């Protein structure tokens, strides 16, 4: 049991690495996973540096259940930093009831203290917190302009 806890403390670092690889892959194409619900279906996809969650109601045959990947054949949109977005629409008028977009670089930044923490034994100096706050403020300023 102690071995599980010792290895679990590195999960945020592994998650940051996986998110970074997903961000690199998102510049080349689209990777999406569709899964069914009782009232509809959900889609999680990665495209243009953004992790997107879409809830479809009713289920659409255009998005079959499973894991899919497509390589972009057109020029990329050059949106490397991703976009924030949340939208909720009436399902009688729109196909997507809920849409949530989270930029992958922002998610990596939020996980960064937890990823670096085990290597520093969670002893952050004051300048670490100031630098993290400055990076977070800069990212929020960039995303507020997009």
Describe the structure.
The chain has one domain. The protein has four helices and six strands. It has helices at about 1-10, 10-25, 105-120, 125-145, and strands at about 30-35, 40-45, 50-55, 65-70, 85-90, 95-105. A six-stranded antiparallel sheet has the order 4-1-2-3-6-5. A hairpin with a 2-residue loop joins β2 and β3.
Major sheet summary line: 6 strands, antiparallel
What radius of gyration results from the CA coordinates?
18 Å
Which whole number gives the mean pLDDT? 80
- The end-to-end distance, rounded to whole angstroms, is 46 Å
Number of DSSP E strands: 6
Uncertain residue ranges? none
Approximately how much helix is present in the residues?
Answer: 40-55%
| Assembly category | single chain
Could you state the order of secondary-structure elements as H and E? HHEEEEEEHH
Share of residues in strands: 25-35%
In order across it, which strands form the biggest sheet?
Answer: 4-1-2-3-6-5
Total count of domains:
1
Question: Which shape, going by the Cα principal axes?
Answer: globular
The structure class reads: alpha+beta
Q: How many helix segments? A: 4
Layout of SSEs?
Blueprint: H1 2-8, H2 11-26, E1 29-36, E2 41-47, E3 50-56, E4 66-71, E5 85-88, E6 96-103, H3 104-120, H4 126-145
Antiparallel strand pairs: 1-2, 1-4, 2-3, 3-6, 5-6
Helix pairs in contact: 2-3, 3-4
Give a short summary of the structure.
The protein is α+β, with helices and mostly antiparallel strands and 146 residues long. Helices cover 41% and strands 27% of the residues. The chain is built from four helices and six strands.
